[in-house]
Amino acid sequence: MTTIQTPNGFSLDNGGRRIVVDPITRIEGHMRVEVNVDDHNVIRNAVSTGTMWRGLEVILKGRDPRDAWAFVERICGVCTGCHALASVRAVEDALDIRIPTNAFLIRQIMEKVLAWHDHVVHFYHLHALDWVNPVNALKADPRATSALQQAVSPNHAKSSPGYFRDVQNRLKKFVESGQLGIFRNGYWDNSAYLLPPEADLMAVTHYLEALDFQKEIVKVHTILGGKNPHPNYMVGGVPCAINIDGDMAAGAPLNMERLNFIKLKLQEAFEFSQNVYVPDVIAIGSYYKNWLYGGGLSASNLMDYGDCPTVQGDPSTNRFPGGVILGGNWEEIHPIDPRDPEQVQEFVTHSWYEYGAGREDIGLHPWDGMTDPHYALGANAKGTRTNILAVDEAAKYSWVKAPRWRGNACEVGPLARYILAYSKGVPYVKAQVDDALGRFNALAGTSLTPREALPTTIGRTLARALEAHYCAQQMLDDYDALIANIAAGDLATANVSKWDPATWPKEAKGVGIVAAPRGGLGHWIKIRDGRIENYQCVVPSTWNGGPRDAKGNIGAFEASLLGTPMSNPEQPVEILRTLHSFDPCMACATHVMAPDGDELARVTIR
Ligand code: NFE
Ligand code: MG
């Protein structure tokens, strides 16, 4: 047994029992976690591994910068458009291209449609079943469910006892057929599930409502970007012509009928996050009022680049202000500059890459970043290269790099954005957080402050719900601005003055930043002679899921698991709860795709 103090203030103890969960399911991509638990089944060491690699950054070298968005959009099947957006922003930054106002607003709407959709799917379809027990919902009294629904969200129309009875009957048929389908593989007999049956039935009902509506909101992408989940983008604007009086047959995708349809979907989204998603998270969270684990790095270091300006090119109008908080000091927000070579760097001391002889422990700014794979297990790893039984965290142990801000590991994501915005006093965010916490405390009979409630697993999940609703509000505001701009006679959607590479400088470099659903996303590009010389993506799940760095600082996933008690280590509900609150995307983190459909949780204990 060894006890290690990390420079960023965590105590790691690799004695006791080692538990392996591989793969972590209900996420995008392949991820493994190994933890050590003590005699009381409390997690004392955590090791997060990204287990596959594809190398998109290598594939991009030598290609046309105008094509990069279409490649990087395929990094992921979830946050697709975020990568396309970061890419066109990086190229436009390098070539000094200013896009038309319509394109600026249409991109903002597409960005937030993606965020809203991603947040809703994350909560209902990937995370809720860590808290909600669909089998227990069968025991619910539909009248009690109706009463609960009307208490937690009086404005949601679907609240009658008959409605909940119908859903319960559907669910009963599922269970009696022995085919739980989407609800298979849960630890439904685990004592960590605390909801009364009526709350379980309410949440399962909304699982189904969310499943229905998520296919509606993405229609906005199919109108503005031609298709979903990989809508079209272009350097210089959007590939979407405006002709207000045109009809579809005449080849004008954006006419008044389509704009009215978009408005309707944005309003429906707004109502869903207001009347269903946010109230559900508050109500479910209140039953888990004692589950204040999982803070980890969110109690100390947080980062976001800032995004969603109301005025193009003016970061002072960012609706997510961004910045960095260190050491839990909410009073001091450090500005962040993604161009500064001293600020954002990636380390590979514990990642399966090489920076060259004698450079093992250095950090590289993404403009100078390298992606040279070097897969080797450490001396104390167990198993084989293709069947790892235990990783060796003293050596290289992940395909994910370790990004740092001035050497500090930071948590990124909606929670980081919300703590930053709250600390900066953004009025919308402050009102939302105070209202949500007021309702939480009233239901739970607690008096938690933002500082107590937010840096936790439940706080992370709540911040994501609040952000979805803020995104819905922003989409409606951006829509109004778009209509006003079109009404003023501006129909431009693309600036093609620098489309021809002959107009480009011999060398150029740029950075594109996006507030992606899981946190701050950056793409860095270097262009030489009209081709991509270097391209690096530093992705939210890389920040959160990366391994240790040269100094031994641990990242957000590992930090969040420490100190969490497990009710039954054979059923790692608590590990799933904690990690799912970040919604890990290892496809993004390592730019990989899983080649198979392996989704069964396999827990190995030794
Ligand atoms: Ni593949 Fe992503 C987001 C990006 S990764 S989901 O959000 O960028 O963390
Ligand atoms: Mg990368």
> So what's the CATH class of the largest domain?
Mainly Alpha
Query: How much strand content do the residues show?
Result: 5-15%
| CATH architecture descriptor of the largest domain | Orthogonal Bundle
Secondary-structure class: alpha+beta
Instruction: Output the strand order for the largest sheet.
Output: 5-4-3-18
List of distinct ligands in this structure: NI-FE active center, magnesium ion
Number of helices: 17
Q: What is the fourth-level CATH superfamily of the largest domain?
A: Cytochrome-c3 Hydrogenase, chain B
- Provide the helix percentage: 25-40%
At the fold tier of CATH, the topology name of the largest domain is Cytochrome-c3 Hydrogenase, chain B
Main location: other
Family: Belongs to the [NiFe]/[NiFeSe] hydrogenase large subunit family.
Keywords: Metal-binding, Nickel, Oxidoreductase
Protein name: Uptake hydrogenase large subunit
Can you summarize this structure?
Helix content is 38%, strand content 14%. By secondary structure, it is an alpha+beta fold.
Structure description:
It is a single chain. This protein is α+β, with helices and mostly antiparallel strands and 606 residues long. The chain folds into 2 domains: 1-95 and 295-424 and 506-606, Cytochrome-c3 Hydrogenase, chain B; 98-294 and 459-496, Cytochrome-c3 Hydrogenase, chain B. The chain has 17 helices and 18 strands. It has helices spanning 56-59, 68-72, 80-95, 101-127, 142-152, 161-176, 197-217, 219-225, 256-287, 414-424, 427-444, 450-453, 457-487, 540-545, 556-561, 573-580, 586-590; strands at 3-5, 11-13, 17-21, 31-37, 43-50, 302-304, 307-309, 318-320, 323-325, 344-347, 363-364, 382-383, 388-390, 402-405, 507-516, 519-528, 531-538, 603-605. The strands form 7 sheets. It has a 4-stranded antiparallel beta sheet with strand order 5-4-3-18. Strands 11-10-14 form a 3-stranded antiparallel beta sheet. The chain has a 3-stranded antiparallel beta sheet with strand order 15-16-17. A hairpin with an 8-residue loop joins β7 (307-309) and β8. It starts with a strand and ends with a strand. The model is unreliable at 592-602 (pLDDT under 50). Magnesium ion binds next to β17.
